[in-house]
Amino acid sequence: MTPFEIERLEFTPEAVKTWAPHDHRNTNWPVVYVLDDAESGRHRARGGAFNEVYVGESRNAAARMRQHFDSPRKQNLKSIRVIVDETFNKSVCLDLESYLIRLLAGDGLYRVLNGNDGITQSDYYDRDRYQETFREVFEQLRSDGVFTRSIPEIENSDLFKLSPFKALSQDQAIAVEDILEGLFHDLDSGSSSTSVIQGDPGTGKTVVAIYLIKLLMDIATTGPAEDLDRDSLFSEFFTEGFRELLTDIRIGFVIPQQSLRTSIKKVFVKTPGLSPDMVLTPFDVGLADEDFDLLIVDEAHRLNQRANQPSGVQNQNFKLITGRLFGSDDTTKTQLDWIRAKSTHQIFLLDAAQSVRPADVPPELLDALVRGAKESKRHYPLLSQMRVQSGSDYVGYVRRMLGTAPTTSGASAQGEAEPPIREDFDGYDLRMFDSISAMHEEIRRKDASVGLSRLVAGYAWEWKTKNDKAAFDIEIEGYGLRWNSTQTDWIASSNALEEVGSIHTVQGYDLNYAGVIIGEDLRYDPIEGRLFVDRASYFDKKGKENNSQLGRIYSDDDLLRFISNIYAVLLTRGIRGTYVYVCDPDLRVYLQQFLPSNT
Question: What does CATH list as the number for 394-591?
Fold first, then answer.
């Protein structure tokens, strides 16, 4: 028998007054409740607006409801669901509250009215048993129309993965708290600042950025009369004085990659306090009429230096922006300089070992940025691996295997890293395949069981299907495959399972399982014992283009750094596992030292 009950009543003072005396637990017991604006389980749009939901916990539900009636933000709410269990305590309720908030944000049916400062994932006695109860609560709420998708479907969605409603790891929480303290000090004193958040793939840099933006907007818009949880992680910033410092603050979130930018805009549409207009390209920043108080730059290693842009319009805009900001068309200026010139405060999130094109800002500028942040005590390293389900240093292992391990300053040091000693990663499905068709079939099986499993590859094949939809782009052992048919949100697209994603569609994203095809652009010389590139087998024109603007010619060693970085990124997308197929026979033999065979 299910130990919990879910009671439903109207969100009105009269209904709560009648309900309160029926059970002592309504006024003196820890419970979790869900408030929403759907009438009789029917969801509807109000002038294009989203349905809204709020999740809370309280030891006195009836009294807490009376406080909600006074909140201007909750005047549209219609119904109350109270989740009661004889075994619940405060820790359980905080955990269930956070659990439901995260899943509601990821489901996408509602806009979640909660702030994100109270999201927790703390341990407590018998937590594993309660997790099963939480899943049963979810299913009952789903049958009542509160959720529209299953838990795996929600957890595989970008709305969930990129949501600001996250429980931060310890190093993420330290970074956010330190950044807030420094920012408020600078806002109060009128000082400017530059901060750097640095971390390997999977350490949650993007999560920190989105969480921080949501938190700042909540602080800016939460009135003094709002009833807040004073025990929440960042409650000190919701006290007198902080909100006033954020009055009319102008914040921009700069994302160089098109696909990731589109996904994050969808999240911002669904999140109160955030707007898709906050999500910007570097060109949007440079062309903006007004300056920004704060610019947060995700994947800052993908900002551009002066180089031939993908379009003539962007080439003209690069000159125009540089001239406006610095008085002349100074070709030494980069988009990094634009960000600094257009904002009082900047936060750069970066991993220099994920630079994948010659047009990206060069390593020496990233090194200088990191050194400056360290000198000013505004450098925040993220160390906890949030993506790969392995207790060992899988990311470091991959980078040592490909020779892309970073230096102490953060830039990759191609050729300087010693190959790794063979390691086994318990609980992580790492395999090398001898058959491309067998690897694809395994990816299909994994997608059917857990979802979000995709083939990805280096840019070692021409894009034939751009002009001939019936052709195959990638042909290996008589097996034909096609490149991604869309640049935007490819991972979630309908054809993705039968296509192959490039670096430009997967950088910044998570997969459950990644099947990585290493083409003949990356090869191995067994005599010299080193990796090398086959320039003729690399088909990303912008990936190997010399820089006529700056008079730079990129050698094969330069190209090796970019291509090795690309494969290091691809090999670190998988949460549960990574499968590898290698085209070059000598490289296959070399990598067999480090990767288990598919047997």
Answer: 3.40.50
Residues 6+ apart with CB under 8 A from 222: 115, 228, 238, 243
Q: Are 84 and 244 in contact (CB under 8 A)?
A: no
- The span from the CA of 454 to the CA of 358, in Å, is 27
Enumerate the CATH 3.40.50.300 domain ranges in the chain, comma separated: 170-382
The alpha carbons of the chain give a radius of gyration, in whole angstroms, of 26
Q: Inter-axis angle of helices 90-107 and 127-143, to 10 degrees? A: 40
* The residue type at 278: M
Distances (CA, A) of 587 to 302, 521, 580: 28, 11, 12
Phi and psi based region of residue 20 (left: phi greater than 0; alpha: psi -120 to 50; beta: remaining) = alpha
* pLDDT on residue 45: 46
What is the CATH code of the structural domain delimited by 170-382?
Answer: 3.40.50.300
Q: What is the pLDDT of residues 391-435, one digit of tens each?
A: 668 999 999 999 876 544 444 445 445 778 888 898 899 999 999
Which token pair is 449? 């069981």
Q: Which of 560, 543, 337, 565 is nearest to 459 (CA)?
A: 543
How far separated are the first and last CA of the chain, in Å rounded?
A: 45
Largest Cα separation within the chain, whole Å, is: 84
Helix (H) or strand (E) holding 345: strand 343-350
DSSP codes joined into one string, 426-481: TT-EEEEES-HHHHHHHHHHHHHHHS-EEEEE-S-S--GGGT-TTS-SEEETTEEE
- The residue ranges of the chain whose pLDDT is under 50 are 1, 40-41, 44-47, 407-413, 415-416
pTM tops 0.90: yes
* Continuous segment of H or E residues that includes residue 499: strand 499-501
> Alpha-carbon distance 405 to 420, whole Å?
11
Burial call 576-599: b when 16+ CB within 10 Å, e when fewer: bbbbbbbbbeebbebbeebbeeee
Per DSSP, helices labelled H in 7-73 are: 13-19, 61-69
- Under DSSP, the state recorded for 150 is -
**HEC profile of 252-269:** EEECCCHHHHHHHHHHHH
- Measure the CA–CA gap between 263 and 268, rounded to whole angstroms: 9
Q: Tell me the residue type at 595.
A: L
What is the C-alpha to C-alpha distance for residues 363 and 348, in angstroms, rounded to an integer? 14
Per-residue model confidence (pLDDT) at position 232: 73
Q: Does residue 30 sit in helix, strand or coil?
A: coil
- Give bridge partners of residue 153 from the DSSP assignment: none
Instruction: Return the structure tokens found at 575.
Output: 């949460």
